[in-house]
Structures are given as structure tokens and as C-alpha cells.
What does this fold into?
Amino acid sequence: MNPLPHHEILTSRRDFLKRGGAGFGALALSSILGNANLFGASQGSPVNPLEPRVPHLPGTAKRVIFLFMEGGPSHLDLCDPKPLLNKLAGKPLPASFGSVITAMGEVGSPLLGTNRTFKQHGQGGQWFSDWIPHMAELADDWSVIKSCVADGINHAGGVCQMNTGSIIGGRPSLGSWVSYGLGTENQNLPAFVVLKDSDAQIVNGVRNWGSGFMPAVYQGTLLDEGPQPFANLNPAKGMSPRRQQTNLDLLAKLNQSHLKGREENTELDARIRSMELAFRMQASAPEAVDLRGESEATRKLYGMDETHTENFGRMCLMARRLVERGVRFVQLYHGAGSKWDSHDKIEENHSRLCGEMDKPVAGLIRDLKSRGLLEETLVIWGGEFGRTPMSEKGSGRDHNSTGFSMMWAGGGVKGGQSIGSTDELGLRAVEDKLHVHDLHATILHLLGVDHTRMIYHDKGRPERIDQNEGHVYSKILA
It folds into this structure.
């Protein structure tokens, strides 16, 4: 992660023997571990960049599941109730808030009340609305961050920043940074997996799980929909294992020959490694994504027995199976195509979307907890921003990146607490304001990574996920 130190000059025979002995010891350790990639595989290929690494710190989380609600869910209607909003509904924003122009250019729009019923849940008395009753039952597992802020005012910038730290595309995604810093526990499955709930395009597309200026090997793997999430995984009809191995050996020789002199082409190296991984996945991946062995009780827990929850329930169950098998970072997109965007008809929009994801998300938390996985799995729920208290088109809310909520559970997070706050109308964060950079720094800290030390040098410039601006927020830690 940090650049290697300059070579030291050996000043005596004793130094030489001491250093040499350590080297021979490492070779022996490599043999004991049975790790062919620790010092580079055959044919001169480089050290495996996805080998598991020792973290900087004794982290509490080993893996992450990021439940991304694309389009911007309304914190005001889900977990951050504002009684004054209903009291002033239909009236203009009070003068004390100043002149506010929303992301879509709305000026002076009247305030929009909420039709939701809020209740306190759990020992911590956290507030949740009737749109997410199943998630509310797990109030003591959730840490609700009510003071998130971001810089993106539209979906392109907001989704990009929540995933990469920047509103401008081109930087590595959070999952890529995690893969770069920690590697993966299972060399027969991708380190970073992405699933989405439809064939609709996520805003910015593959850049959300891309590796940016890092080697392409750290990018995410998008799973297909349906019973065969990994495309082209099964051998062609009539292809015997011996024939396939012969073909792969020849292809490996040709690829390695072509790679010589082109070592800077990370896409070529990533393609070679992906072919090798695909071969290994033929034994592991089909079992990992095959849900037929799951009990009927588990399927019901995720809502797979109901039409409106079956799709996202299947994705959440798949996420549990993947992290259970050592996948480091799994990202699920709900509402692909910015469907959480609700400039009008928020009642209809959010009712449908909450109904699709509430039970599956709660099922995921319960399932992880029952299997002893939640303590080491950080689950994140949220979108790129929230919604405004002012109305748009009379029945919706505009984008709001100046104050919104996210929910975290597991992985060393202290549940049953609300962190920070927005003003009395939910427009701006006013207490314990947490920027996206702070969220990223805290995620890495939970994983045992010091974000100030995980550096990638791009063209001589030291780069970090937080662009040198993030701080770990210790109050969220258990």
C-alpha cells in the first residue's frame, strides 16, 4: 500500500547472513502455506495482487455489503421525522433558512408534509416510519447517521462521489480500494461483486465499480440476472476437462508472451487473471450462487415467497452466500436507473420501493446475525443523497445533498443509536456533519485499514480514497 523503502546497503557479512536467513525463512513459509502466488507464479507472472493482506489495525469487519438505493431515498419520510414540517406544510420555507435554490432550480416552493407515521423502536428509541416496518424491528442493530453531506447535486455527481469519493468520474471505487488494500479471502471467487435489481443502467455505468487509475484487476465483477449470474462460466458442450486445460495452458503461454514489454497495460494483465479466475470459478462459483439448497424458512425470511420482494430478496441472499465464502465487498443496487428519484408522486414511488426492499434487508441482517456473520460484516444502507423538505411538482421532493441519512449495522458498529442531526426541517446537517470522505475513512477503519496509509501512487502523485480530506468518526464504533 505504501511505497517500498529504499534498499539498504549491507555493511557486513553478519547483515548479509541475517537478511538472507530471513529470505530463506520466507521461502519455507511460502511452501508451508502452499501459496504459489506469494512470490510470483510460474512463467514470470507477477505476485498475485489479490492475496489477502494483514490490515494496519485490528479491524472489526472483514467484509462489506453495500445496499445502494439509487436515486436518493427520502430521509424525511423514513428515519428523520420533523414535526415542524407537517405543521408548516404548504407554506414557504421560513426566512431564517435564507434563499434556497434546489438542485433542479426550484425557488420558493412550499414545504411538503409527510403522510408517514413514525414510531420509536428498540432500547435506543430510534424513529422509523411505517414504510420500513421490518427494518424498524431491528432498531438496536442499526446506527442511523442523520448528518451525511455530499457535494453532488445531481445523480451523476452524487452516485459517483458515494462510490469513488469524487463527483467527477475516473477514480477507483470504494470496492476497488478495499480489494487493493486487503485482497480477498477466496481466490476462486471475485474479490468485489456487484448486483443490480434490473437490466436498467446505473448512472455512470461501470465507472461506479471501476478501478480508475489502479490496475484493472481491482475492478468489480457485475453479475448477470437470472439463474446463471456468471456468464460463460460453464465449459462448451463436448469440452473435456483435459482438452480445456490444454487450451488454457496454450492461451496462458501466448498471453504471457504478449505481455512481455507491455507490463504497464493493466487491462491485459487483468484479462489474463480473469481467465485464470474463471477456470477456478468453475468449481466454486456455481455452488456459491445456487440458491436451491437454501431452506424454505430462509427463502421466506428474505421475502422470496412473495412476488414484490422475490427479486431483491434473492440478491440479498446471494450477498450473504458470497461474503460467507470470502468475497470481500458486495454491492447491491436497488432501484437501478435512479428509480428512488421522486420529483413527483413520492407516495406512490417510495411505497413501492420500500415494499420491495424492506423485508429482504431485514432478512439479510437477521440471517447474518443468526450465522455469527454480522459481527464481521459491515452492512451499509443508503443512496447518493436525500430529499428536500420543499415540494416539487406539488407531490415530490428534490435532491438534497446538504443533509441526509444512511444506516449502518454490524462490523463493529454500535447499534441502537442515532448519530448527528439535521435542522428542524431536515434541510441541512447541523450536528456531527459527516462528509462522504469521512464515511469512506470510517468504513476502512472498521476493516482495519488506516486510510492515511493506504496510498496508491498515480503518476508520482500519492492518492487516497478520501482525497486527503476524510476523518474517522469514532462515535459509531462499538
Remarks:
- Residues 15-44 form one domain.
- The chain has two domains: 15-44, 63-233+276-476.
- The two ends are 27 Å apart (CA to CA).
- The chain has a mean pLDDT of 87.
